Structure prediction request, 557 residues.
Amino acid sequence: MGIAVLLKQVPDTTAKISVSGDRVDETAVSKWSMSPYDEYALEAALQLKEAGGGDIVAITCGPIRATKMLTDAAAVGVDNLILIQDEGVTDSTHVQSLLAAAVKRSGSDVVLCGKQAADTNGGSTGPGVSHLIGAACVGMISEVYAEGDGFIALRASPTGNERVEVSRPCLFTFDKGATELRRPNVRGIMMAKKKQIETVTSDDLGVAIGTSSVSLQSHSPPPVKPPGQKFEGADSVPVVVAKLRDEANVI
Amino acid sequence: MDVTIIAETTVDGLHPVTSQLVGAAIAIGGTPTVLCPGGLGTTAAASISGVSKVIGVEGDCFNTFDSGAWATALNPLVSDGVIIAASAPSGREVAAQIAAMRGIPIIQDATGLEAGITVTRGIYSGKAIEISTVTAPCAITLRANAFDAAGGGGSAVVSTVNQSADVAVAVREAIAKASERLDVAEADIIISGGRGMGDPANFSHLNDIADMIGAAVGASRAAVDTWGEIPHGMQVGQTGKTVTPSLYIAVGISGAIQHLAGMRTSKYIVAINKDPDAPIFGVADYGIVATWEAALPALKEELGKL
Prediction:
């Protein structure tokens, strides 16, 4: 069994995002981290490996700075690391084609990733890759374990939750998982430093990155709200309720 | 321009967000065809003003949610223009699969759409706004409550197509929700509690108020992480749900940047916090500096008078 995890390095969720000119200023990001939902996917991959064996390959499509995230993944037990250079990547079709090609080349038959990245908030990558590699897609799961040749996953449903079964090849996207990503131990950190990262281009993967019909126009900070009205003490509750009714018309 | 709308359905039929999808499609000059997965809600869809036609897509595959199977069954009925779906868990996944099948780009969770097509959306969970342009063919999912709904009174032609696909996902066990409370992602009013509530049992006060005004009860990440009794499904914020209700009431929530990211686009925000310097007051339209112990009984009383 080969397990692939698709990871993305994003500004840490505690980081401030500043806009300079009409683009987000990435150089001003104080800390880069693995996207939180990807962390849940990675932890689940490690647990699948512990239960049933198989190598884990971590694949990311991004700039050179993302090598740090891959090394962090190696420190908790990922076996192989692949960085796909993201030059020319502008839309969802590009990212998905590259990741799908890398997954296929790795021979993995189960793929795990976050439900969406914490920067672009898209959520298209998992379902799109599943189609391109011919795998079943189970989205928004919080836990998964192997059973027989397939898997049982827990996902939200309109009426609560449901356990679903699925065979290989399959892809899971993670909502918040049951277990936080483990911390690396010293040995893991030392071993990870020596771990090779395979860097590949779209040419290496045989993927032609075409032009895109999506064109980024601008980034801007969120609109600043005019300062609100502030009241002291619980005595002001009737005033606020009256304003909600008469000024805001929301109750 | 042909617009194919993937209707958002519920167990009862058509989800009201579908009218918003139609409204947005018409606003960019589109001629909308509405596909109803599983044939649900076709009559309601046909009555939305401006809908050109409605196709109920019936097949066994729609009995279980398998985005790959749904997309395979729906794809032959999708036209070459723009695909619009709701930015809800199922809509996002199905739209992404259809886009991948057709090799066209998808932009998720748009909050604004103009002819052209210009798409506005939040990135970094709303810490920045991205504007991009895209041409058909493409797929776009729209955030609920960000677009004006088309009205009623339409009378589109309804047809039914039998189209199924192989299902790869089987439900082994359904686990009912612990409570029948409204989901924060669905609600027009949300009252959320943070760690300042002191104890998860105190959320009962939020529940009481929610029942009075038809609100959903949410929570901050700090509350969810601290207390096992508060499920992640209630979490509003960057690693929870992003919400845009008409009214968001934050109680005992200091306003960490991750929480603000998930609720700052709410139409009106009320903050109740004992710390006058809490960052939540920075985004609040109406701030009340008070303990929840003092403010909530007063709020209950006032709402009772309405």
